Amino acid sequence: MTDKEAYTDAIDSTLAERREIETTVYQPAEDSALLANAIHEQGRGRLLEVGTGSGWVAVTTAEDVDAVTEVVASDINPHACRAAAQRAVSSDDTTTPISVVQGDLLTAFDTNSFETVAFNPPYLPTDPDAEWDDWMERALSGGPSGREVIESFIDSLSRVLVPDGIGLVIISSLTGYETVTRYIETAGFSYSVVIEESYPFETLSVLALRHQ
Ligand SMILES: C[S@@+](CC[C@H](N)C(=O)[O-])C[C@H]1O[C@@H](n2cnc3c(N)ncnc32)[C@H](O)[C@@H]1O
Protein backbone atom coordinates (compact mmCIF):
# COMPACT_ATOMS: atom_id res chain seq x y z
CA MET A 1 0.00 0.00 0.00
CA THR A 2 1.37 3.46 -0.90
CA ASP A 3 1.53 6.33 1.62
CA LYS A 4 -1.34 8.05 -0.21
CA GLU A 5 -3.55 4.94 -0.01
CA ALA A 6 -2.64 4.52 3.65
CA TYR A 7 -3.71 8.09 4.34
CA THR A 8 -6.93 7.64 2.38
CA ASP A 9 -7.78 4.45 4.25
CA ALA A 10 -6.69 5.62 7.65
CA ILE A 11 -8.45 8.97 7.71
CA ASP A 12 -12.17 8.44 7.38
CA SER A 13 -13.33 11.01 9.83
CA THR A 14 -16.31 13.31 10.01
CA LEU A 15 -15.57 17.02 10.12
CA ALA A 16 -16.47 17.07 13.80
CA GLU A 17 -13.96 14.31 14.46
CA ARG A 18 -11.32 16.26 12.53
CA ARG A 19 -11.83 19.19 14.88
CA GLU A 20 -11.19 16.89 17.83
CA ILE A 21 -8.00 15.55 16.21
CA GLU A 22 -6.47 18.91 15.35
CA THR A 23 -7.51 22.46 16.08
CA THR A 24 -4.68 24.40 14.45
CA VAL A 25 -3.48 22.73 11.24
CA TYR A 26 -5.61 20.71 8.79
CA GLN A 27 -4.26 17.15 8.64
CA PRO A 28 -4.20 15.06 5.43
CA ALA A 29 -7.56 13.49 4.56
CA GLU A 30 -9.33 12.00 1.53
CA ASP A 31 -9.37 15.38 -0.22
CA SER A 32 -5.62 15.83 0.29
CA ALA A 33 -4.97 12.45 -1.36
CA LEU A 34 -7.24 13.37 -4.29
CA LEU A 35 -5.30 16.58 -4.90
CA ALA A 36 -1.97 14.73 -4.63
CA ASN A 37 -3.18 12.16 -7.18
CA ALA A 38 -4.36 14.90 -9.57
CA ILE A 39 -0.95 16.60 -9.31
CA HIS A 40 0.66 13.24 -10.01
CA GLU A 41 -1.36 13.04 -13.25
CA GLN A 42 -1.13 16.63 -14.48
CA GLY A 43 1.36 18.67 -12.41
CA ARG A 44 4.56 19.94 -14.02
CA GLY A 45 7.23 22.62 -13.82
CA ARG A 46 7.20 25.14 -10.97
CA LEU A 47 4.23 24.29 -8.74
CA LEU A 48 2.48 26.37 -6.10
CA GLU A 49 0.30 24.62 -3.55
CA VAL A 50 -1.98 27.24 -2.02
CA GLY A 51 -3.35 26.44 1.45
CA THR A 52 -0.79 23.74 2.13
CA GLY A 53 -1.92 22.96 5.71
CA SER A 54 0.39 20.22 7.04
CA GLY A 55 2.47 20.37 3.84
CA TRP A 56 1.74 16.72 3.04
CA VAL A 57 0.54 17.38 -0.54
CA ALA A 58 3.49 19.69 -1.28
CA VAL A 59 6.15 17.37 0.12
CA THR A 60 4.59 14.23 -1.44
CA THR A 61 4.63 16.07 -4.77
CA ALA A 62 8.29 17.04 -4.42
CA GLU A 63 9.18 13.46 -3.54
CA ASP A 64 7.05 11.59 -6.10
CA VAL A 65 6.30 13.73 -9.17
CA ASP A 66 9.25 13.91 -11.54
CA ALA A 67 7.53 16.40 -13.88
CA VAL A 68 7.41 18.96 -11.05
CA THR A 69 10.77 20.77 -10.78
CA GLU A 70 10.14 23.09 -7.82
CA VAL A 71 7.44 23.34 -5.13
CA VAL A 72 6.27 26.46 -3.32
CA ALA A 73 3.83 25.82 -0.46
CA SER A 74 1.79 28.68 1.00
CA ASP A 75 -0.82 29.21 3.68
CA ILE A 76 -2.42 32.10 5.49
CA ASN A 77 -2.05 30.16 8.76
CA PRO A 78 1.40 30.62 10.40
CA HIS A 79 1.06 27.30 12.28
CA ALA A 80 0.48 25.53 8.94
CA CYS A 81 3.54 27.24 7.45
CA ARG A 82 5.68 26.02 10.36
CA ALA A 83 4.29 22.46 10.02
CA ALA A 84 4.90 22.45 6.27
CA ALA A 85 8.44 23.80 6.65
CA GLN A 86 9.19 21.13 9.25
CA ARG A 87 7.85 18.41 6.95
CA ALA A 88 9.94 19.75 4.06
CA VAL A 89 13.10 19.70 6.19
CA SER A 90 12.37 16.09 7.25
CA SER A 91 11.86 14.94 3.65
CA ASP A 92 14.35 12.50 2.12
CA ASP A 93 14.05 14.22 -1.27
CA THR A 94 16.94 16.57 -1.87
CA THR A 95 16.50 17.12 -5.60
CA THR A 96 13.27 19.14 -5.80
CA PRO A 97 13.48 22.49 -3.97
CA ILE A 98 10.58 23.23 -1.59
CA SER A 99 9.93 26.64 -0.05
CA VAL A 100 7.14 27.80 2.26
CA VAL A 101 5.55 31.27 2.12
CA GLN A 102 2.92 32.72 4.43
CA GLY A 103 0.32 34.71 2.53
CA ASP A 104 -3.29 35.30 1.56
CA LEU A 105 -4.15 33.24 -1.55
CA LEU A 106 -2.01 34.48 -4.50
CA THR A 107 -1.17 37.99 -3.35
CA ALA A 108 2.48 37.18 -2.48
CA PHE A 109 3.33 35.85 -5.94
CA ASP A 110 4.53 37.42 -9.17
CA THR A 111 2.67 37.48 -12.47
CA ASN A 112 3.32 34.51 -14.81
CA SER A 113 5.32 32.57 -12.24
CA PHE A 114 3.89 29.02 -12.05
CA GLU A 115 3.23 26.20 -14.52
CA THR A 116 0.90 24.56 -11.96
CA VAL A 117 -1.15 26.01 -9.11
CA ALA A 118 -3.03 23.54 -6.87
CA PHE A 119 -5.58 24.29 -4.15
CA ASN A 120 -7.72 22.25 -1.78
CA PRO A 121 -9.78 25.20 -0.58
CA PRO A 122 -12.02 25.68 2.42
CA TYR A 123 -15.45 24.99 0.92
CA LEU A 124 -18.00 24.15 3.60
CA PRO A 125 -21.04 26.45 3.54
CA THR A 126 -21.09 27.89 7.05
CA ASP A 127 -23.73 29.88 8.87
CA PRO A 128 -22.01 33.10 10.08
CA ASP A 129 -23.54 32.53 13.54
CA ALA A 130 -21.85 29.10 13.68
CA GLU A 131 -18.34 30.31 12.77
CA TRP A 132 -15.74 29.24 15.36
CA ASP A 133 -13.29 32.00 14.39
CA ASP A 134 -10.21 29.78 14.68
CA TRP A 135 -7.63 28.35 12.27
CA MET A 136 -9.68 25.20 11.58
CA GLU A 137 -12.55 27.45 10.57
CA ARG A 138 -10.21 29.10 8.05
CA ALA A 139 -9.32 25.63 6.79
CA LEU A 140 -12.92 24.43 6.40
CA SER A 141 -15.33 27.31 5.94
CA GLY A 142 -16.11 28.85 2.57
CA GLY A 143 -18.50 31.41 4.08
CA PRO A 144 -22.29 31.26 3.79
CA SER A 145 -22.21 30.01 0.16
CA GLY A 146 -19.12 27.79 0.57
CA ARG A 147 -17.67 29.59 -2.47
CA GLU A 148 -16.06 32.72 -1.04
CA VAL A 149 -12.45 31.50 -0.95
CA ILE A 150 -12.72 29.47 -4.19
CA GLU A 151 -14.08 32.48 -6.08
CA SER A 152 -11.32 34.80 -4.79
CA PHE A 153 -8.77 32.18 -5.83
CA ILE A 154 -10.25 31.88 -9.34
CA ASP A 155 -10.29 35.69 -9.69
CA SER A 156 -6.49 35.90 -9.29
CA LEU A 157 -5.38 32.55 -10.76
CA SER A 158 -4.93 33.86 -14.29
CA ARG A 159 -2.36 36.43 -13.14
CA VAL A 160 0.13 33.98 -11.57
CA LEU A 161 -0.18 31.17 -14.14
CA VAL A 162 2.04 31.12 -17.22
CA PRO A 163 -0.07 31.27 -20.42
CA ASP A 164 -0.21 27.48 -20.86
CA GLY A 165 -0.30 26.80 -17.11
CA ILE A 166 -2.81 24.66 -15.26
CA GLY A 167 -4.84 25.21 -12.08
CA LEU A 168 -5.91 22.14 -10.10
CA VAL A 169 -8.73 22.85 -7.65
CA ILE A 170 -11.04 20.68 -5.54
CA ILE A 171 -14.77 21.32 -5.82
CA SER A 172 -17.35 19.69 -3.52
CA SER A 173 -20.96 18.94 -4.36
CA LEU A 174 -21.71 20.76 -1.07
CA THR A 175 -20.46 23.98 -2.68
CA GLY A 176 -22.69 23.82 -5.78
CA TYR A 177 -20.77 22.23 -8.64
CA GLU A 178 -22.57 24.02 -11.51
CA THR A 179 -22.32 27.42 -9.82
CA VAL A 180 -18.55 27.03 -9.44
CA THR A 181 -18.00 25.73 -12.99
CA ARG A 182 -20.01 28.68 -14.40
CA TYR A 183 -17.79 31.02 -12.36
CA ILE A 184 -14.69 29.30 -13.75
CA GLU A 185 -15.87 29.77 -17.36
CA THR A 186 -16.87 33.39 -16.76
CA ALA A 187 -13.35 34.03 -15.40
CA GLY A 188 -11.92 32.91 -18.78
CA PHE A 189 -10.95 29.29 -18.06
CA SER A 190 -11.97 25.99 -19.59
CA TYR A 191 -12.07 23.05 -17.22
CA SER A 192 -11.92 19.25 -17.23
CA VAL A 193 -12.44 16.70 -14.46
CA VAL A 194 -9.17 15.00 -13.46
CA ILE A 195 -10.53 12.81 -10.63
CA GLU A 196 -13.95 12.44 -8.99
CA GLU A 197 -14.81 10.47 -5.83
CA SER A 198 -18.10 10.08 -3.98
CA TYR A 199 -18.28 9.86 -0.19
CA PRO A 200 -21.30 9.43 2.09
CA PHE A 201 -21.91 13.15 2.42
CA GLU A 202 -20.39 14.68 -0.73
CA THR A 203 -18.78 14.15 -4.14
CA LEU A 204 -15.34 15.69 -4.61
CA SER A 205 -13.97 16.60 -8.04
CA VAL A 206 -10.50 17.84 -8.89
CA LEU A 207 -10.86 20.18 -11.86
CA ALA A 208 -8.03 21.21 -14.19
CA LEU A 209 -8.41 24.85 -15.26
CA ARG A 210 -6.70 26.25 -18.37
CA HIS A 211 -6.84 29.69 -19.98
CA GLN A 212 -9.47 29.66 -22.76
C1 LIG B 1 -8.93 22.13 3.38
S1 LIG B 1 -7.39 22.71 4.02
C2 LIG B 1 -6.26 21.89 2.90
C3 LIG B 1 -4.90 21.61 3.50
C4 LIG B 1 -3.94 20.79 2.62
N1 LIG B 1 -3.72 21.44 1.35
C5 LIG B 1 -4.49 19.42 2.39
O1 LIG B 1 -5.04 19.17 1.30
O2 LIG B 1 -4.37 18.57 3.28
C6 LIG B 1 -7.39 24.40 3.40
C7 LIG B 1 -6.13 25.20 3.74
O3 LIG B 1 -6.26 26.50 3.13
C8 LIG B 1 -5.75 27.48 4.02
N2 LIG B 1 -6.35 28.78 3.68
C9 LIG B 1 -7.60 29.21 3.95
N3 LIG B 1 -7.79 30.45 3.47
C10 LIG B 1 -6.62 30.82 2.89
C11 LIG B 1 -6.18 32.00 2.23
N4 LIG B 1 -6.99 33.06 2.07
N5 LIG B 1 -4.91 32.03 1.76
C12 LIG B 1 -4.07 30.96 1.93
N6 LIG B 1 -4.44 29.82 2.55
C13 LIG B 1 -5.70 29.74 3.01
C14 LIG B 1 -6.12 26.97 5.40
O4 LIG B 1 -5.34 27.55 6.42
C15 LIG B 1 -5.90 25.46 5.22
O5 LIG B 1 -4.60 25.10 5.58
SSE order in H/E notation? HHHEHEHEEHHEHEE
Q: What name does CATH use for the topology?
A: Rossmann fold
Number of strands: 7
Count up the domains: 1
Name the CATH homologous superfamily: Vaccinia Virus protein VP39
What value does the Rg take, in angstroms?
16 Å
Largest sheet: 7 strands, mixed
By CATH, the architecture is named 3-Layer(aba) Sandwich
Number of helices: 8
The coarse overall form would be globular
Ligand identities: S-adenosylmethionine
Q: Helix amount, in percent?
A: 25-40%
Terminus-to-terminus distance: 39 Å
Name of the CATH first level: Alpha Beta
Portion in beta strands: 25-35%
Low-confidence stretches: 1-14
GO cellular component, one term: eRF1 methyltransferase complex
InterPro entries: DNA_methylase_N6_adenine_CS, Euk-Arch_PrmC-MTase, PrmC-related, SAM-dependent_MTases_sf, Small_mtfrase_dom
Keywords: Methyltransferase, S-adenosyl-L-methionine, Transferase
GO biological process, one term: methylation
